[in-house]
User: Fold this.
Amino acid sequence: MNAEVRSLSLVEVEHGVYGLPGVTRVTMKRPDAFNALSEALLEDLQTALNQIGKSDARVVVIAGAGRAFCAGHDLKEMRAAPSLAYYQSLFNRCTKLMLTIQRLPQPVIARVHGIATAAGCQLVAMCDLAVAADTARFAVSGVNLGLFCATPSVPLSRNLSRKAALEMLLTGDFIDAVHAKQQGLVNRVVPLDALDAEVSRLASSICAKPVEAVRAGKDLFYRQAEMGIEAAYQLAGQTMACNMMDDSALEGVQAFIDKRPPDWKQ
Assistant:
């Protein structure tokens, strides 16, 4: 199946990629700037994700064009208009984008190649899942410029252990893809020429599951993670009880009892 392609000025949105009708890929298109997050790119990403969130897409893939995934914020643009109000507005817009990724009903997979630095590493950490080429490298390198990567520290500290996250944040040093997987920043690492095939396998596995369970599960996962354990269990129990009343869950359990594949209508 050919993907349906629609382009904003700095973002390309493709529906039905990898021959999977439920998969939408969003590609950042500032290759000459290593897909640095300019104000315009942030706006296009926000627009694209807002639209996808209302669509019937099952899985979203975020990718970068050219030689890198994303090099973080556009430092030339940031330095051109130094004011506290401007920086507060910029980081608020970036935060809104990151939270949009987490709040999308669809699981979001980062397809990472080349470098993912500063806010680019933050973007990987905010995606629900990440598949990286074995040549990919990751860093939160703002501290090397005298700027602690404060906003990237939020998702980084929720993906890695505290000491591992702080080592990246305080040194600004790069880690390779294998190390990133060991630390919990990415799920899978494959050769560059196998990257799309691995993303496709992961997306296909998710698309094969009932949409109600996947969407309810993603929402529950993040909400309970910020709660105390008692409140988390209460929310999880309520979510599971409601999920059990879905036709897909009732069919899945009955199919297990009958020792046959489930017949999900989706």
